[in-house]
Amino acid sequence: MDSRRSHVRIGDVAREAGVNIQTLRYYERRGLLAEPARGRSGYRDYGESAAPQVRFIKRAQDLGFSLSEIAELLELRDRARRGRPATRRLAAAKMAAIDEKIRELTAMRVALAQLVDACGRSANAPECPIIEALDLGRPPVAAGRSDV
């Protein structure tokens, strides 16, 4: 190991991981990234594993995991094979949540499409059907959602 890489400054870690310095400090406060030792100068001295860990966190966020779920994933990662069933359950639960969100977004899109269509059909009406529906609190119900 390159001895210079065992003491990496915060700006270098941020640059390598593609985040800003405030993000690193936030991850430290949340416990996602270990608070590094400080050198004699008072600067944070990160180890070489900091940037890969931040990239792990960002990739997990890209998949929709919350920071709390990512903390759990980081714990499971440290358990290697013993954490595999729990990791699978966590990922399966995230997939189910994404599927539900897709259903909700699809229903919202259907409702909005109905409003856009109604607006196009009633070009001579005094009120825009979209504004009217929103004013009345009654946008069209789509795909079984009563709160759309």
Keywords:
148 residues, mainly alpha, Multidrug-efflux Transporter Regulator, Chain: A, Domain 2, elongated, disordered C terminus
Question: How is this structure best described in words?
Answer:
The chain is built from six helices and two strands. With 148 residues, the protein is an all-alpha fold. It has a domain at 1-65: Orthogonal Bundle (Multidrug-efflux Transporter Regulator, Chain: A, Domain 2), CATH 1.10.1660.10. It is elongated.
List the helices and strands and how they pair.
Layout: H1 10-17, H2 21-30, E1 37-38, E2 44-45, H3 50-62, H4 67-78, H5 84-121, H6 129-136
Antiparallel strand pairs: 1-2
CATH class of the domain at 1-65: Mainly Alpha
Terminus-to-terminus distance: 57 Å
- Would you report the number of β strands? 2
CATH topology of the domain at 1-65: Multidrug-efflux Transporter Regulator, Chain: A, Domain 2
Uncertain segments: 143-148
Strand order of the largest sheet: 1-2
What percentage of residues falls in helices of 4 or more residues? 55-70%
Radius of gyration: 24 Å
Q: What does the largest sheet look like?
A: 2 strands, antiparallel
Helical segment count = 6
Question: In terms of structural class, how would the helical and strand content be classed?
Answer: mainly alpha
Please tell me the overall pLDDT.
86
The CATH architecture of the domain at 1-65 can be named as: Orthogonal Bundle
Strand content: under 5%
Give the overall form.
Answer: elongated
What is the element string, with H for helices and E for strands? HHEEHHHH
